[in-house]
Structures are given as C-alpha cells and as structure tokens.
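Slide 14.
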Amino acid sequence: DCDWRFKASSINKSELFKVREFNDNHTCPLKDKVYEQRQASSSLISGIIRTKLTNHKRKYTPRDIIDDVKSDLGVDVSYMLAWRAKEKAMNFLRGEPADSYKKLPGYLYTMDKTYPGSHIRMEKSSKNEFMYVYISLYAFIRGFDHCRPIVIVDRSHLKSYYTGTFVYASTLDGAGHILPLAYGVIDSENDAAWTWFFEQFKIAYGVRGNMCIVSDRNENIIKSVSRVYPYLPHCACIWHLWNNVYKKFKKSHAKLSEIYFSMAKAYTQTEFDSLMEKVEKVNIRVKEYLELAGYEKWARLYVPVNRGWTMTSNIAESINAALVSERELPIYDFLEEVRKMFGRWNCSNLKEATQTYKTLGKKYQEMLELNDTMCTRMTSKFLMPEEYCSSYYKPSTIVMTYDVPVYPLPDKNDWNIPEHVAEEVVLPPKWKRPPGRPKKKRDKNLSELLLPKNQHSCSICGQGGHNKRTCRNAPHNK
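Slide 15: predicted structure.
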C-alpha cells in the first residue's frame, strides 16, 4: 500500500474539476518505483515524448527515450519498448506512412492554385499506385530566363518507410547562388522514370539556345537525356569523371590529378595540348580513356556551348546535403519541407540582390576585383572590366531572377479542394524500405578517403593535437 492520494470532483456537474485531496508522499517500496513496470506502456511513453519529436531535425534516439523515462518517471524500459513508443509518436504526429500518399492530390492541387503558371504533375500506375511526381514552380520558370542555360541534374535516395528517389534540377544565378528549377520523387531509378522527368522538364522550360545538361555518368540519366534532348550537349561532372579515372588507373592518379583538372578548365588549345602530352607520358591508357569519354563531355575548350564556371555538379550535392534529415519524412511532409526551403532561398537571394550596389553580383565582383589588381594592362588604358561581363551577372538581372516570390501555402483549414480531387485514390508504391537502419551518410569512394585532411592547430601556441580550451603551452609570437 502507498499513502499517495489524488482526489478530485466536478463542480456542479460541469466540466470544471476541483482537487479535494492530494498527498504527494510515496510510501511504496523503492523497487516498485524504479524497476520495470507494466504500466509504462509504449502508448504512455509516446504521449510523453511527442513534443520532443516535432522538430524532424532533432536526433532523438531510443537511448535518449530510455534516459528521459528513467529521469522523469523513475522507470526502466527496454530498447524495443522505447523504439515502439517513438514509432507511435511519429505516426501520431505525421500519420501512417501510407496515408501520406492520400494527401498528395489535395496538396498538389493547392500548389497549382497558389502558384499559377507552375508545371505540377503526378503519375500513377493502372492500380492507382504512386509512380512519379514533378514540380516546377512559376517562380523557378521565370527565373531561369535570367540565368545561364546550364542545368545540373542529380538524385538522392529517400529513407522513409516507402523507398523512392528524390530527383532535382538546378542552376546558378548571376550571384553564384543555387536556383532550383524542378524537383520530384520517382518510385525507383530507371530509364522510364528519368525519361518522364525530362519530358516534364522540357514541357516546363522548353529548349534554350546554348543550353546544356550537367550530371554524373549515371546510365539512366545518359539514356533519358539522349531520348528527350537528342541534340542537346550533355556534359559530365569533372569530379565524377575523375573518380572513374582513379578507379581504373590507381597507380597513376597521384601524378595526374592536378594535370587533369587543369586540362578540364583550360581555355586555349595550346594549354590543353601541352597538358595532354604530360598525361600521355604518365600513362597513355589514361589519354585513350579520356578520348573515349569525349573531350566535349568534360573539357571546357571542347564544349559546344559556354559552360562558364559550372564544371561540376556540386550545387546538386549542396541540395542533397541540406535535406539529409528531411529525406526520412513521409513523401507529403518531405515535399513540403523542400518547397519551404526553396522558398527561403528565393527570399534571401532576392534580399541580397536588392542590397547589392556594385556593378556585379557579390561573388563575381570579388573575383573581378582580384583579377583587376593583377592586370595592369586594363588599368593603364582606363578600361572598365565590368563592361565586358555578361548581363547575367548584373544586379538588375539577378533581381529579375527572383521577381516572382514563392509565397507560403494557405493554412490547411482554408484549402478549397474539389470533391473529385479529394476522392482521388493514391496508393503507396509496391516497394518499401528494406529492414535495417538507414544510412545517414553516403559511402565515400577511395579517392575521397585518400584526400588530405585539414590540419588543425591550437590558436594560442600554434601546435597540433589540441585546441585553445586544453592548451597548457606558452602563446606563440604572431
């Protein structure tokens, strides 16, 4: 028996209750309070931890739940019980994974009405199973007219209950910021899915002069681009191509790394030929491999269009890195997080452009000023280098890139969805996540693992192996 008591009764049969008696003194044995109790069910624990799971970016593991339940309730729970409690809390906050697909018709309809002029499509199988979704907001479509027509395409795998692949296309604005062009989800990565994505992209953006597509050497992307854009240059990311060279010719990579990247960025035929001769001396098979890959795929000198500074698909990797935690969300929540992130980028880039009072955007203005200090020929002739720069890099053009804002969607209570849209059936794809804990980081290839690491040193003494918080040495003379 325990003296702990709590008694309350309603006031005049209303919904208000008054506490009549409360004794907070426990006289029950310690073991009943500390050791495992049946009353600490997964449902009870899930109700307690819900508030800690509202932020999807927060890492809240079953081990954290075990510690919190122990400190808050004085109860020991197993790892499996904590895991089930977390799953129940997540389902309460986000709904069942399959229910997320049911929300897509209404969500896409609301987006289409909120952003008129956008190109938004969804494809289903004959059994109403989800296959693909494509989104190009009108703000992106208008903004692309004021950027170089270089389209970077990439993909990343979703980590939610039902697997899928996040596919996206982007470019760089005149200030060097990422301008998203299109994004979507496909049920699996194959030729048909990528072909559908590029067909939708072509409907939304058409074909511009001097346009080219940049991606890694993914076979599905290569085949799909050749089908949808048979006459469009398809360039390779020079970093991904170098990884292929590294895998095939491991003994020569150390001598060729600097030569290869200099050759890819060379502007003159003389410089390119000189570097290629060095490659031939190191390993003639590497030269043959690069010739077979096609100079027009990776060398700036041979690309039939002005590729500019876009020699890699790094900006696509930046989008992927910004959505690491979001990729674990159900598809509806994931698409909404992507839309909100791109909306924030749109707003911040516009703000920076309107506050730029120099001749060019910030990034390229700094590059021009650095080159200007090294070049005495133009200054001696009183020439203004900005006059020779493309209009794409002028602040006025950058402002027009973000002329159309990405407004927030209306509150869900205000969505006016027609009955035929609300009743549309969308079932989850037949594939679902395989068992096991999903990876948070991609596997790095050997060339990335062997890259020299940054050497950190103490800011007080200048020596390595520790930092200023644990430094016991005398300060070094600066």
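Speaker note: The mean pLDDT is 85.
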